[in-house]
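Before the break, one more example. Copy the sequence into your notebook; we will annotate it together after we see the structure.
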Amino acid sequence: MSYLLYNNDGANKRLCVVIKMKDWSFITNHGLVLLYILRNSQCTMRQMAAALDVTERTIKRVLEDLKEAGYVIWQKTGRGNIYEIQSTQRLKHELTREVMLGDLLSLLGGGSKY
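Here is what the structure looks like once it is written out:
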C-alpha cells in the first residue's frame, strides 16, 4: 500500500506504508514445547518461555494440555522440572493416529533420540 503526499512546494513525494502480516508457523506452540523438551529435558518454564518467545502462562497451559493428553510427564527438581516425553504415545488426529510421538519428534528434531 502506498500514499501520494505533496510537499508545500507542490512537489510529489511518495510514502510507502508496510503492513506487517500476522506471523505464523507450521509448528504450533505445543509442538515447539515438545521440541524444546527434547533438547532440554531439565529446565524451568521461564527458560522455555524465553526460548519460544511466549509467556510463562502460555507454557503452563501447553504443558497442562500435553500432560492431560499423555504426551509429557514431569517431576519437580528444585527450581525447575525434569520433563519426560512419552514417545510411544500415538498422535490424536485421525489423519495421524498411526504416527508415534517419538517418530515425529525425531523427524522434526533432526536426531534419533526416540
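The chain has one domain: 27-109. The first helix runs from residue 29 to 39. Try to locate both features in your own notes.
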